[in-house]
TrEMBL record:
It catalyses: ATP + H2O = ADP + phosphate + H(+). Belongs to the DEAD box helicase family. DEAH subfamily. It comes from Steinernema glaseri. This is RNA helicase. GO terms for molecular function: ATP binding; hydrolase activity; RNA binding; RNA helicase activity.
Length: 1136
């Protein structure tokens, strides 16, 4: 039976407030709205407390309190003394904090107002140049929360951030919010962050950055006069600060203010890199190594040195060094930067044999070889604050080595008071090669990428790659000149002769006259005087490119076809002002490209790859790229250099195209198809893989780098290449094999090698100078070595050209006759082409250009030879502690003996460059006429046709270089070698058969030693030299036979008259039963005691003791002659 629920009121206390709840009763619960509200749930019936229950609860509480007290007493008894001391320190710190509050309140009365504190300047940074105002810094930093700790300048490990808030400037903290009781207080070193370098007095302490913050308006309830500290854990601007630069204050000085002209300032502001000055300088300040990657035209070469100069990197007497791979770039960049700084004396250049460096120099441009040489005397480069490796993408051998050395030097210098900054710059940098951990194991280089060229360049490909790229280049230049708007044209070809040929063709089609009073006359296009144009040539570093390719001048008939197709030039077209540019061109002629172009002419520059980088040729709008370059391919195993015309790399193609966008928008015409371009290598092979490394290995050994193979090369050379170089140096006695601490054999430098490393020459040429000094031949040897070390001192015969064919033939014939005359006769003739070089430099009394050209000499090379002679003389004076070389001796003709000695010195120093004429009777196959065989080549080699020994064909010759001409390998700078010299002068390259003990030895009257003929061969090819006398090994046998020859009078002929009176035959000494005779054993033992087994050793013993061997000798003679022998003893004049 249902019934109606009864309504009921219930009073419930919620949060201490009585609430009246109405509900309906239904079997003990109410759920009218089916709600889960706790306030309307019917509570259970509560028990009423009685007085008895209260007494029980009070007793329970007392029991619990008593238990806690007993537990505390037990714990107090267990506490150690150390813990008690710690607790006492915590209590003491609390008491100090309580009293410190009163102290700061008193000090607050004497604190200056905040607006007055802003006007004060710290004396610690009085001389620092601020780039932005204080208020701007305060405003910029007011909303930023800087990290509280940075890395210590002493290299301490980075400590974990504690999460403490930044401390407001001019404020001292009074208490912690939580009162960290377990950590001791740490006194932080505070420095103001206002764009100034950090200067720390306690480097070992963690660094806290103090930043001024705006007062938090929400903290209105804080005590008046107590500044507030806004705390924020969310803002993280650690990237804004970065790592503290190590010891930056030790290398940077006062900022330098440069006053430039308005024109220079305007031109600099247009460069893409100009806007990046602040970021670049900051990156360099904060990093030891910075890699700057920027394409051609960004301005990095000229601007970055200026950025660092203004930043104060030279204010403390240090230099900013910039290395360039080419001499032309070093000279031109130094001139440009000096002009932009408005202080030419502050910027200098130093190249081989030339430079204008002074005490006022602040920025020094130099070639990489110059800096490498300077590191031999100062490995840490203490004179420099910054080293910039420019054009690193060219990967020259010494730039790679410099980067490897500096990758170790920069971290070492970073630990000193004067750190060194390393900057690697390139237009097309292979970043992976320079950021590898093998190169920089302890640091990570900072990479900066600059904007590309400032003007766009349109690249045009050919639909089909032409077979004759020179003919195509001629046609393209003609079309550009006759059809396109004004602008200079830059044409890239592969070699010097191609430059001359193309210029000759262009001048014939577009002549111009310097006579301003007459109109420029046009003439009909005449047929080229020489229809042949070189397609292949040598590398710029090669020699005699015309001679090498005399038989491979391909027909240039395509030019005639194009000439006829083009027709006559358009009427009224401008003349074409053509200029050459290649490395062998004189500096004076190279500078013509920067001079003003004659009125009414368009500039056309025909250049080799020397114009690819660094140089900014004015007003170039059109680039014609043949896609070819001459590359010297060096085989490290055989030592043969082959000069080939090869396709350039993609990186070089981009560099060449970039030349058109330096001044304005331009066009690049690539004379090859895009498909051929895709087959190009991405980058050219580093030079270190295609060049002899003997000199490099020796220099590195002299620096203490014993294991060259383990050196941090950006691209390591072939291990076989290094091994063969070390073997050659071992045979030169520049190195010797020693045992290291780990019992491994290592080749270490010898005293001779240390001397050779002083010279900027190949070790074999340096050794020629060292040996010649001992024989008073130094002036002559310096002249020969200087001529051998300079590129093309003699003008190539086949490169000589006259106005007519008859005149050209006469020039060539006169040059050949002159060189035949210089070769002389006798020993001078046998010296061969080396005598020609010596007579050539001897014949040039002045360095006049006309005098050099008249004698068939290259003026620039002769100037370098003169400078090298002076440099070598200075090095010899310092390294060998001798006075300067007397060059007056060069005016005298060397004697026959001196010429012979020069030949022998060449054999001692260049034994691996000896070749032997092939005997047709020794081989079964036909042998070409004049064929020779080298030690390391399978192919036959031939004497160059222009050599004075071309028709002589001696059995053994010595050559300077082997180059490939067509299908032949030709030897250059040849001299004659006598076969009998080889066992004595090139002993390390000879193989001697074992000495047969059954044969009796002989006494060599010339050397005064005991010898025995043995079968001898030369080199690994085992060229037979016949039976050669070899000294006996040092054993008992050599002493017995020396005693026999001594008694027989063969050592000293004056003793021969006594042989007939001897008591026994001298040959008894060598018999097996000689021990039975007392006189024989005494004589042999006396020789062994003083190690006398040669004539010279015996004379030296007599100088110490005149009666040496007298008693032993008298034992072989009768008593009747003893008095006479005693009077005549010793039997030679020991005073001589």
């Amino acid at each position: 039976m249902s019934h109606k629920p009864q309504k009921r009121k219930t009073i419930v206390e919620a949060a201490g407030v009585p609430i009246v709840v109405e509900g309906y009763m239904n079997d003990g619960y109410s759920n009218r709205g089916d709600s889960a509200n706790a306030l309307i749930i019917q509570p259970n019936a509560q028990k009423r407390k009685t007085e008895e229950d209260a007494d029980v609860g009070e007793a329970k509480r007392k029991k619990q309190k008593f238990g806690r007290e007993r537990m505390l007493e037990k714990q107090k008894k267990k506490e150690s003394k150390t813990k008690v001391k710690k607790l006492q320190k915590v209590l003491e710190r609390k008491r100090q904090k309580e009293t410190r509050e009163q102290l700061f309140e008193c000090l607050q009365q004497y604190q200056l107002p905040t607006d007055q504190l802003k006007t004060l300047v710290s004396t610690a940074h009085r001389n620092d140049k601020e780039k932005i105002a204080r208020d701007e810094v305060d405003q910029a930093t007011s909303s930023a929360q800087f990290p509280t700790k940075l890395r210590s300048l002493t290299g301490a490990q980075l400590r974990a951030a504690e999460g403490k808030p930044a401390v407001q400037e001019n404020y001292c903290e009074t208490s912690d919010s939580e009162g960290d009781m377990d950590d001791e207080e740490i006194q932080h070193i505070i420095d103001k962050y206002k764009g100034k370098p950090y200067r720390l007095e306690e480097p070992d302490s963690p660094i806290t950055v103090a930043v001024k913050e705006e007062e938090d308006e929400s903290d209105e309830d804080e005590d008046e006069g107590k500044p507030s500290i806004p705390r924020s854990d969310e803002d993280d601007v650690s990237d804004l600060i970065g790592d503290v630069p190590s010891n930056i204050g030790g290398i940077r000085g006062e900022k330098v203010v440069v006053h430039r002209t308005e024109e220079i300032s305007a031109s600099r502001s247009k460069l893409p890199i100009f806007a990046e000055e602040q970021s670049i300088v900051e990156a360099i300040n904060e990093n030891s190594v910075v890699i700057v990657s920027g394409e051609t035209g960004s301005g990095k070469t000229t601007q970055i040195p200026q950025f660092l100069y203004e930043a104060g990197y030279t204010s403390k007497g240090h230099l900013i060094g910039v290395t360039e791979p080419r001499r032309v770039a070093a000279m031109s960049m130094a001139s440009r930067v000096g002009t932009e700084l408005n202080d030419p004396e502050a910027v200098s250049y130093q190249i081989r044999f030339e430079g204008n460096r002074t005490d006022k120099t602040k920025i020094l441009f130099m070639t990489d070889g110059v800096l490498m040489k300077e590191m031999q005397n100062d490995l840490l480069l203490n004179k420099y604050s910054v080293i910039i490796i420019d054009e690193a993408h060219e990967r020259s051998m010494y730039s790679d080595v410099l980067i490897g050395l500096l990758s170790r030097i920069a971290p070492m210098r970073a630990k000193t008071e004067t750190p060194l900054k390393l900057i690697i710059m390139s237009a097309t940098l292979r970043i992976d090669d320079f950021t590898q951990k093998r190169l920089f194991p302890t640091i990570t280089p900072k990479i900066i990428k600059c904007e590309s060229r400032q003007f766009p360049v349109t690249v045009h490909f050919e639909k089909k790659t032409p077979e004759n790229y020179m003919a195509s280049a001629f046609k393209k230049v003609c079309k550009i000149h006759e059809s396109l708007p004004p602008g200079a044209v830059l044409v890239f070809v592969s070699g010097q002769l191609e430059v001359k040929k193309l210029i000759s063709q262009l001048k014939a089609r577009y002549p111009w006259s310097l006579d301003k009073n007459k109109k420029m006359k046009r003439r009909k296009v005449v047929e080229p005087e020489d229809k042949d144009m070189m397609i292949e040539n040598l590398d710029e570093a090669g020699v005699a490119d015309a001679e090498l390719f005399e038989d491979e001048e391909l027909a240039f008939s395509d030019v005639d076809i194009m000439d006829s197709a083009l027709g006559d030039p358009k009427p009224g077209s401008d003349a074409l002002y053509c200029l050459p540019l290649y490395s062998l061109l004189s500096s004076r002629k190279q500078q013509r490209i920067f001079q003003e172009v004659p009125e009414g002419c368009r500039l056309c520059i025909v250049a080799t790859n020397v114009a690819e980088t660094s140089l900014t040729i004015p007003n170039v709008r059109y680039v014609v790229d043949t896609g070819k370059e001459k590359r010297r391919m060096h085989d490290p195993i055989t030592g043969v250099s082959m000069f080939k015309v090869m396709n350039i790399s993609k990186a070089s193609a981009e560099q060449r195209s970039g030349r058109a966008g330096r001044v304005s928008a331009g066009h690049a015409y690539r004379l090859y198809s895009s498909a051929v371009f895709e087959d190009f290598q991405q980058f050219a092979e580093p030079e270190i893989l295609n060049k002899p490394v003997d000199q490099l290995v020796l220099h590195m050994k002299s620096m203490g780098i014993v294991r060259v193979a383990n050196f941090a090369f950006p691209t390591p050379p072939d291990p076989d290449q290094l091994e063969i170089a070390e073997k050659r140096l071992l045979k030169l006695d520049a190195l010797k094999v020693g045992v290291a601490k780990n019992k491994t054999k290592e080749a270490k430098i010898t005293p001779l090698g240390t001397t050779l490393a002083h010279f900027p020459l190949s070790p074999k040429y340096a050794k020629m100078l060292v040996i010649s000094k001992r024989n008073d031949l130094l002036p002559y040897a310096i002249a020969v070595v200087s001529m051998l070390s300079v590129r093309e001192p003699l003008q190539p015969i086949h490169a000589m050209r006259g106005d007519t064919e008859e005149e050209t033939h006469k020039l060539m014939l006169d040059a050949l006759k002159r060189r035949r005359k210089w070769s002389g006769t006798g020993q001078c003739r046998s010296l061969g082409d080396l005598a020609v070089l010596f007579k050539a430099i001897k014949s040039v009394e002045s360095t006049d250009i006309e005098a050099c050209e008249k004698l068939g000499l290259r003026h620039k090379a002769i100037m370098e030879v003169r400078q090298m002679q002076k440099q070598l003389s200075q090095i010899i004076a310092v390294a060998m502690k001798t006075p300067d070389v007397d060059y007056a001796a060069l005016t005298k003709e060397p004697t026959e003996a001196q010429y012979k000695m020069l030949r022998q010195i060449a054999v001692v120093c260049l034994p691996d460059q000896i070749a032997r004429r092939v005997d047709p009777t020794e081989v079964d196959v036909p042998v070409p006429k004049g064929a020779y065989q080298c030690q390391n080549l399978q192919e036959y080699v031939f004497i160059d046709a222009t050599s004075v020994l071309f028709k002589s064909e001696p059995d053994f010759i010595l050559f300077q270089d082997v180059v490939q001409v067509n299908d032949k390998l030709c030897m250059q700078n040849v001299s004659i070698v006598e076969a009998e010299w080889l066992p004595r002068l090139a002993e390390n390259y000879c193989h001697f058969a074992p000495i047969d003990d059954k044969l009796d030895p002989l006494f060599d009257e010339i050397s005064g030693t005991i010898v025995q003929p043995v079968r001898t061969t030369f080199s690994d090819r085992e060229w037979l030299l016949g039976q050669i006398d070899r000294p006996l090994p040092n054993n008992i046998r050599v002493y017995r036979f020396f005693a026999q020859f001594f008694l027989e009078g063969k050592v000293f002929p004056a003793m021969a008259k006594n042989v007939s009176m001897m008591l026994a035959t001298p040959s008894v000494v060598t018999k097996t039963w000689a021990k039975l005779q007392d006189r024989s054993e005494k004589l042999v033992n006396a020789l062994i005691e003083r190690d006398v087994r040669s004539r010279d050793a015996l004379v030296a013993a007599w100088k110490e003791e005149s009666e040496y061997l007298l008693t032993e000798y008298l034992a072989w003679l009768p008593q009747s002659v003893h008095d006479r022998i005693q009077l005549e003893w010793p039997p030679c004049d020991i005073a001589q």
